[in-house]
Amino acid sequence: MEQFVQTITAKGIVKRFGSEEVLSGVNVAVQPGEILGVLGPSGAGKTTLVKCILGTLKLDGGTVEIQGTHMPNLRLMDRIGYMAQQDALYDDLTGLQNLVFFAQLKGMSKRAAAEQAHSLLKLVELDRDENKKVVNYSGGMKRRLSLTAALIGDPDVIVLDEPTVGIDPVLRELFWDEFKRLQRLGRSIIVTTHVMDEAEKCDRLILLRSGSIIEDGTPNELKAKTEIGTLEAAYITSAKRRGEEGGKQ
Ligand SMILES: Nc1ncnc2c1ncn2[C@@H]1O[C@H](COP(=O)(O)OP(=O)(O)O)[C@@H](O)[C@H]1O
Ligand SMILES: [Mg+2]
Predict the structure, then answer these.
(1) What does the mean pLDDT of the chain come to?
(2) Is the pTM of this model over 0.85?
(3) How far is residue 182's CA from residue 108's CA, in Å, rounded to a whole number?
(4) Among 20, 22, 165, which is best to mutate for testing ligand 1, by the most ligand atoms less than 8 A from CB?
(5) Which residue, 132, 155, 178, sits at the end of a domain?
(6) Which of 97, 104, 110, 159 has its CA at 20 to 30 Å from residue 220's CA atom?
(7) CA of 48, closest atom in ligand 1
(8) Looking at the structure, do residues 61 and 168 belong to the same domain, yes or no?
(9) Is 130 a member of any domain?
(10) Domains held by the chain: number
(11) Distance between CA 172 and CA 179 in Å, rounded?
Protein backbone atom coordinates (compact mmCIF):
# COMPACT_ATOMS: atom_id res chain seq x y z
CA MET A 1 0.00 0.00 0.00
CA GLU A 2 1.24 3.45 -0.78
CA GLN A 3 2.18 5.70 2.06
CA PHE A 4 -0.82 7.18 3.70
CA VAL A 5 -0.79 10.12 6.07
CA GLN A 6 -3.65 10.15 8.48
CA THR A 7 -5.03 13.65 8.76
CA ILE A 8 -5.98 13.52 12.41
CA THR A 9 -4.60 11.12 14.98
CA ALA A 10 -5.59 11.63 18.60
CA LYS A 11 -4.38 9.09 21.11
CA GLY A 12 -5.47 8.61 24.68
CA ILE A 13 -6.97 12.02 25.20
CA VAL A 14 -7.65 12.78 28.83
CA LYS A 15 -9.31 16.00 29.94
CA ARG A 16 -10.38 17.00 33.41
CA PHE A 17 -12.21 20.03 34.70
CA GLY A 18 -11.38 20.16 38.41
CA SER A 19 -12.15 16.72 39.78
CA GLU A 20 -14.44 15.80 36.87
CA GLU A 21 -12.82 13.66 34.19
CA VAL A 22 -14.64 14.59 31.00
CA LEU A 23 -12.51 12.51 28.59
CA SER A 24 -10.90 9.30 29.77
CA GLY A 25 -8.48 8.18 27.08
CA VAL A 26 -10.24 8.82 23.79
CA ASN A 27 -8.66 7.77 20.47
CA VAL A 28 -9.71 9.36 17.20
CA ALA A 29 -8.37 8.86 13.68
CA VAL A 30 -9.63 10.63 10.60
CA GLN A 31 -8.36 10.07 7.09
CA PRO A 32 -8.35 12.35 4.08
CA GLY A 33 -11.77 12.35 2.47
CA GLU A 34 -13.50 11.01 5.54
CA ILE A 35 -16.39 12.42 7.55
CA LEU A 36 -16.25 11.33 11.16
CA GLY A 37 -19.40 11.87 13.19
CA VAL A 38 -19.11 12.36 16.94
CA LEU A 39 -22.36 11.36 18.57
CA GLY A 40 -23.41 11.53 22.16
CA PRO A 41 -25.93 13.03 24.52
CA SER A 42 -25.56 16.55 25.82
CA GLY A 43 -22.67 16.70 28.26
CA ALA A 44 -20.97 13.61 26.81
CA GLY A 45 -17.84 15.60 26.00
CA LYS A 46 -18.23 16.22 22.26
CA THR A 47 -17.27 19.89 22.40
CA THR A 48 -14.45 19.18 24.83
CA LEU A 49 -13.13 16.50 22.46
CA VAL A 50 -13.05 18.76 19.42
CA LYS A 51 -11.43 21.56 21.42
CA CYS A 52 -8.77 19.12 22.62
CA ILE A 53 -8.13 18.03 19.04
CA LEU A 54 -7.79 21.62 17.89
CA GLY A 55 -5.54 22.45 20.81
CA THR A 56 -7.73 25.22 22.18
CA LEU A 57 -8.00 23.24 25.42
CA LYS A 58 -4.93 21.93 27.19
CA LEU A 59 -4.80 18.15 27.44
CA ASP A 60 -4.33 16.32 30.73
CA GLY A 61 -3.11 13.30 28.82
CA GLY A 62 -2.62 11.95 25.34
CA THR A 63 -1.39 13.41 22.07
CA VAL A 64 -2.88 14.92 18.93
CA GLU A 65 -1.27 15.08 15.50
CA ILE A 66 -2.77 16.79 12.49
CA GLN A 67 -1.12 16.09 9.15
CA GLY A 68 1.79 14.60 11.04
CA THR A 69 2.36 17.72 13.13
CA HIS A 70 2.05 17.72 16.88
CA MET A 71 -0.77 19.95 18.10
CA PRO A 72 -1.23 22.66 19.19
CA ASN A 73 0.49 24.37 16.28
CA LEU A 74 -0.33 27.91 15.29
CA ARG A 75 0.79 27.57 11.68
CA LEU A 76 -1.49 24.59 11.13
CA MET A 77 -4.51 26.53 12.31
CA ASP A 78 -4.55 28.24 8.90
CA ARG A 79 -5.31 24.84 7.37
CA ILE A 80 -8.12 24.08 9.80
CA GLY A 81 -11.66 25.39 9.64
CA TYR A 82 -13.53 25.38 12.93
CA MET A 83 -17.17 26.09 13.54
CA ALA A 84 -17.68 26.38 17.28
CA GLN A 85 -20.93 25.43 18.96
CA GLN A 86 -21.23 29.00 20.20
CA ASP A 87 -21.00 31.52 17.38
CA ALA A 88 -17.93 33.73 17.72
CA LEU A 89 -18.79 36.64 15.46
CA TYR A 90 -18.38 40.41 15.61
CA ASP A 91 -21.81 41.94 16.15
CA ASP A 92 -20.82 45.39 14.93
CA LEU A 93 -19.43 44.15 11.63
CA THR A 94 -21.58 43.06 8.71
CA GLY A 95 -21.68 39.43 7.65
CA LEU A 96 -19.34 40.14 4.77
CA GLN A 97 -16.93 42.12 6.94
CA ASN A 98 -16.83 39.29 9.47
CA LEU A 99 -15.98 36.80 6.78
CA VAL A 100 -13.29 38.94 5.18
CA PHE A 101 -11.80 39.51 8.62
CA PHE A 102 -11.58 35.77 9.34
CA ALA A 103 -10.13 35.15 5.89
CA GLN A 104 -7.41 37.70 6.46
CA LEU A 105 -6.56 36.08 9.79
CA LYS A 106 -5.91 32.96 7.75
CA GLY A 107 -3.52 34.89 5.56
CA MET A 108 -5.75 35.52 2.54
CA SER A 109 -5.47 38.76 0.60
CA LYS A 110 -8.43 41.11 0.90
CA ARG A 111 -9.28 40.58 -2.73
CA ALA A 112 -9.20 36.78 -2.61
CA ALA A 113 -11.12 36.92 0.66
CA ALA A 114 -13.88 39.09 -0.75
CA GLU A 115 -14.21 36.88 -3.81
CA GLN A 116 -14.51 33.67 -1.83
CA ALA A 117 -16.70 35.34 0.78
CA HIS A 118 -19.31 36.20 -1.83
CA SER A 119 -19.62 32.66 -3.11
CA LEU A 120 -19.78 31.20 0.40
CA LEU A 121 -22.43 33.70 1.47
CA LYS A 122 -24.42 32.75 -1.57
CA LEU A 123 -24.09 29.09 -0.71
CA VAL A 124 -25.69 29.61 2.71
CA GLU A 125 -28.24 32.06 1.28
CA LEU A 126 -26.90 35.05 3.15
CA ASP A 127 -25.85 37.04 0.10
CA ARG A 128 -28.82 39.37 0.36
CA ASP A 129 -28.04 40.04 4.01
CA GLU A 130 -24.28 40.29 3.72
CA ASN A 131 -24.23 44.04 4.37
CA LYS A 132 -26.35 43.85 7.49
CA LYS A 133 -24.63 44.01 10.83
CA VAL A 134 -24.49 40.65 12.59
CA VAL A 135 -26.24 42.14 15.62
CA ASN A 136 -29.37 42.12 13.45
CA TYR A 137 -28.97 38.48 12.36
CA SER A 138 -31.24 35.71 13.66
CA GLY A 139 -29.73 32.69 15.39
CA GLY A 140 -29.94 30.64 12.21
CA MET A 141 -28.30 33.37 10.17
CA LYS A 142 -25.42 33.51 12.64
CA ARG A 143 -25.02 29.74 12.37
CA ARG A 144 -24.86 30.01 8.60
CA LEU A 145 -22.28 32.78 8.80
CA SER A 146 -20.22 30.72 11.24
CA LEU A 147 -20.17 27.90 8.73
CA THR A 148 -18.82 30.18 6.02
CA ALA A 149 -16.16 31.40 8.47
CA ALA A 150 -15.08 27.78 8.96
CA LEU A 151 -14.95 27.08 5.23
CA ILE A 152 -13.20 30.21 4.03
CA GLY A 153 -9.62 29.65 2.95
CA ASP A 154 -10.44 26.14 1.79
CA PRO A 155 -9.08 24.31 4.85
CA ASP A 156 -7.87 20.68 4.67
CA VAL A 157 -9.40 19.85 8.02
CA ILE A 158 -12.90 20.97 8.93
CA VAL A 159 -14.28 20.67 12.45
CA LEU A 160 -17.95 21.44 12.91
CA ASP A 161 -19.55 21.45 16.34
CA GLU A 162 -23.31 20.93 15.94
CA PRO A 163 -23.35 22.90 12.69
CA THR A 164 -27.02 22.48 11.88
CA VAL A 165 -28.67 23.42 15.16
CA GLY A 166 -31.28 26.06 14.36
CA ILE A 167 -31.00 25.44 10.62
CA ASP A 168 -34.15 24.54 8.69
CA PRO A 169 -34.31 21.13 6.97
CA VAL A 170 -33.88 22.48 3.44
CA LEU A 171 -30.74 24.38 4.30
CA ARG A 172 -29.53 21.45 6.37
CA GLU A 173 -29.61 19.30 3.23
CA LEU A 174 -27.67 21.99 1.46
CA PHE A 175 -25.05 22.05 4.21
CA TRP A 176 -24.64 18.30 3.90
CA ASP A 177 -24.34 18.48 0.13
CA GLU A 178 -21.48 20.88 0.71
CA PHE A 179 -19.83 18.65 3.34
CA LYS A 180 -20.04 15.73 0.89
CA ARG A 181 -18.54 17.84 -1.90
CA LEU A 182 -15.64 18.84 0.35
CA GLN A 183 -15.19 15.22 1.35
CA ARG A 184 -14.88 14.21 -2.31
CA LEU A 185 -12.14 16.82 -2.64
CA GLY A 186 -10.23 14.93 0.05
CA ARG A 187 -10.94 17.16 3.02
CA SER A 188 -11.22 15.57 6.45
CA ILE A 189 -14.29 16.48 8.41
CA ILE A 190 -15.27 15.99 12.03
CA VAL A 191 -18.86 16.81 12.83
CA THR A 192 -20.57 16.53 16.19
CA THR A 193 -24.27 15.95 16.18
CA HIS A 194 -27.14 14.41 18.02
CA VAL A 195 -29.34 14.37 14.92
CA MET A 196 -29.63 10.79 13.71
CA ASP A 197 -30.32 11.45 10.05
CA GLU A 198 -27.09 13.43 9.98
CA ALA A 199 -25.17 10.66 11.68
CA GLU A 200 -26.33 8.43 8.84
CA LYS A 201 -24.43 10.59 6.37
CA CYS A 202 -21.07 10.16 8.07
CA ASP A 203 -18.54 7.56 6.93
CA ARG A 204 -17.77 6.54 10.46
CA LEU A 205 -19.25 7.32 13.83
CA ILE A 206 -17.98 7.35 17.36
CA LEU A 207 -20.46 7.27 20.17
CA LEU A 208 -19.26 9.16 23.21
CA ARG A 209 -20.64 8.55 26.63
CA SER A 210 -19.29 9.55 30.04
CA GLY A 211 -15.90 10.39 28.58
CA SER A 212 -15.31 7.20 26.62
CA ILE A 213 -16.04 5.88 23.15
CA ILE A 214 -18.68 3.21 23.58
CA GLU A 215 -19.19 2.45 19.88
CA ASP A 216 -17.05 3.01 16.80
CA GLY A 217 -18.01 1.98 13.30
CA THR A 218 -19.81 2.80 10.10
CA PRO A 219 -23.48 3.76 10.40
CA ASN A 220 -24.38 0.32 8.99
CA GLU A 221 -22.18 -1.50 11.47
CA LEU A 222 -23.80 0.34 14.34
CA LYS A 223 -27.27 -0.32 12.98
CA ALA A 224 -26.52 -4.02 12.57
CA LYS A 225 -25.95 -4.25 16.31
CA THR A 226 -29.61 -3.68 17.06
CA GLU A 227 -32.70 -5.67 16.18
CA ILE A 228 -34.59 -2.66 14.92
CA GLY A 229 -31.70 -1.70 12.69
CA THR A 230 -31.86 2.04 13.04
CA LEU A 231 -29.14 4.36 14.24
CA GLU A 232 -31.50 5.76 16.81
CA ALA A 233 -31.89 2.29 18.28
CA ALA A 234 -28.12 1.74 18.24
CA TYR A 235 -27.63 5.00 20.05
CA ILE A 236 -30.19 4.24 22.72
CA THR A 237 -29.16 0.62 23.16
CA SER A 238 -25.50 1.35 23.64
CA ALA A 239 -26.24 4.25 25.92
CA LYS A 240 -28.42 2.00 28.08
CA ARG A 241 -25.97 -0.87 28.00
CA ARG A 242 -22.88 1.09 28.94
CA GLY A 243 -24.12 4.35 30.30
CA GLU A 244 -25.17 3.55 33.81
CA GLU A 245 -21.79 2.07 34.73
CA GLY A 246 -20.17 5.41 35.45
CA GLY A 247 -23.17 6.64 37.40
CA LYS A 248 -22.71 10.08 35.87
CA GLN A 249 -25.29 12.50 34.46
N1 LIG B 1 -14.80 25.00 30.83
C2 LIG B 1 -15.39 24.04 31.55
N3 LIG B 1 -15.28 24.02 32.88
C4 LIG B 1 -15.84 23.04 33.62
N5 LIG B 1 -16.58 22.03 33.11
C6 LIG B 1 -16.73 22.00 31.79
C7 LIG B 1 -16.16 23.01 30.92
N8 LIG B 1 -16.48 22.71 29.65
C9 LIG B 1 -17.22 21.58 29.70
N10 LIG B 1 -17.38 21.16 30.97
C11 LIG B 1 -18.10 19.95 31.41
O12 LIG B 1 -17.66 18.87 30.62
C13 LIG B 1 -18.71 17.99 30.29
C14 LIG B 1 -18.80 17.82 28.78
O15 LIG B 1 -19.18 19.03 28.18
P16 LIG B 1 -19.22 19.24 26.61
O17 LIG B 1 -17.91 18.82 26.06
O18 LIG B 1 -19.66 20.62 26.36
O19 LIG B 1 -20.32 18.18 26.18
P20 LIG B 1 -21.19 18.10 24.84
O21 LIG B 1 -20.55 18.98 23.83
O22 LIG B 1 -21.15 16.65 24.47
O23 LIG B 1 -22.57 18.53 25.21
C24 LIG B 1 -19.95 18.59 30.91
O25 LIG B 1 -20.17 17.94 32.14
C26 LIG B 1 -19.58 20.04 31.10
O27 LIG B 1 -20.28 20.58 32.18
MG1 LIG C 1 -21.23 20.51 22.73
Answers:
(1) 90
(2) yes
(3) 20
(4) 22
(5) 155
(6) 159
(7) 17
(8) yes
(9) yes
(10) 2
(11) 11
